[in-house]
Structure formats: structure tokens, C-alpha cells
Design brief:
The protein has helices spanning 20-33, 76-89, 164-167; strands spanning 2-3, 10-14, 40-43, 46-49, 53-58, 62-64, 67-69, 95-101, 108-111, 124-130, 133-139, 148-152, 156-161, 168-172, 182-188. By secondary structure, the chain is of the alpha+beta class. One of its GO terms (molecular function) is dioxygenase activity.
């Protein structure tokens, strides 16, 4: 894994954690086997559809973007991925949030994964399958730090840990470029 040059952060990236063949198979299995939901978000007093599909699996419920997520029980493909991510990162994960970006019009806004349930310095392991999307980091307070962008490749693993969530926000911007659908999984350890 290569370490990204971000101060006040510990971010590691492995572009080819899985081979393209394995990644194709995982994409298909997840696309078909996951119970994808279209959730909505309340913004400016309006109910808007989230700009992506989501699913939450694991041992514990979790509040995300103001929504309480009742977890679905682990399924074999997610257990298998969790095992490999645990092996590679040396961390335990009891939950996974999945995101399905149907097109370049789907996105995720600036945020950090700093909910109290995740503890002080959470380890978040993120797998990407399908179309490549840009992923950017922005420092919360340091104006001298330019945003940093990387491309999350098919079959890649990104690990964010230590003080990363405390100091940096991240997002997946929309793109006008034609892109294939993308599936992202973020493995987390929810306390309590
Ligand atoms: O799709 C991605 O790579 C980002 C996902 C993410 O930041 C999240 O689920 O909190
Ligand atoms: Mn996040």
C-alpha cells in the first residue's frame, strides 16, 4: 500500500488490491446480490432522493446523514471481502456501508466519517469496483493545504485511519465524463 502525502492524516492506497478478473466477478455479484435502496435526504426542508443507492450490512445499526440504518445480516460475499480487508489492514470491521453510483450524475457530498459511534480515530477501509471515480480530500482548517485528488480504480483498496477524519473531509464529485456504474464498500467498526 502506498501512503498519500497528506499532513495530519494516515491514508493508504492499493490500486490493484484485486485483479481485474476478480473485480469483475465481485462487481456482478454485488450488483445482483445486494439489497440496494434508494434513500432520501432532507435538505432545505425538502425530501430529495440521495444521489446514489445504498445498503447497510453488519452487526450494529448506525446513523448516517441523519438516517438510522437498520443493518442487514452478513451475506457470504461481504464476509469474504471483510476477511480479506481485515487481513490487509490488521483491523476488525463489524459493519459495511455500500454505495452504488449508477452514473457520473451520482455522487457523495463533502463529509468526514466522524460519527461518535465510530470512535476517536476510526479505521475505514474502502473497496471500489466498476467505473473509476475521482475522490478528493480537503483540509478542514488549513488554507495552505490544497485539496488532494486520487482516482479510485477498479479493485482498489483505500484505507483511512488515525487522525484523517478529524482533519480532512472527502467527497466523490459528479462528473460529465461518461463513466461505468461503480460500487463502493466502506468497512467500519461501530462501537456500543
Ligand atoms: O464512494 C466512495 O469512494 C466514498 C464513500 C464514502 O466516503 C462513505 O461511504 O463514507
Ligand atoms: Mn466517507
Amino acid at each position: 500500500m502506498q501512503k498519500l502525502p497528506l499532513p495530519n492524516a494516515e491514508v493508504y492506497y492499493a490500486p490493484r488490491f484485486f485483479s481485474p478478473e476478480e473485480s469483475n466477478a465481485y462487481f456482478r455479484e454485488l450488483e445482483q446480490g445486494i439489497n440496494w435502496q434508494q434513500e432520501s435526504i432532507r435538505m432545505f426542508g425538502k425530501e430529495l432522493p440521495m444521489p446514489r443507492l445504498t445498503a447497510w450490512y453488519g452487526d450494529k445499526g448506525y446513523t448516517y446523514s441523519g438516517l438510522y440504518n437498520e443493518p442487514k445480516p452478513w451475506v457470504p460475499v461481504l464476509q469474504k471481502l471483510r476477511e480479506q480487508v481485515k487481513e490487509a489492514t490488521g483491523q476488525e470491521y463489524n459493519s459495511v456501508l455500500l454505495n452504488f453510483y449508477r452514473s457520473g450524475n451520482d455522487s457523495m457530498g463533502w463529509h468526514s466519517d466522524d460519527e461518535a459511534e465510530l470512535g476517536k480515530e476510526p479505521s475505514i477501509a474502502s473497496l471500489s469496483f466498476g467505473g473509476e471515480r475521482r475522490f478528493s480530500f480537503k483540509h478542514r482548517t488549513r488554507k495552505d493545504q490544497k485539496p488532494v485528488s486520487i482516482t479510485l480504480e477498479h479493485g482498489s483498496l483505500l484505507l483511512m485511519q488515525g487522525p484523517t477524519q478529524h482533519h480532512w473531509l472527502h467527497h466523490i464529485p459528479k462528473t460529465k465524463r461518461p463513466v461505468q456504474p461503480r460500487i463502493n464498500l466502506t468497512f467500519r467498526n461501530v462501537k456500543g
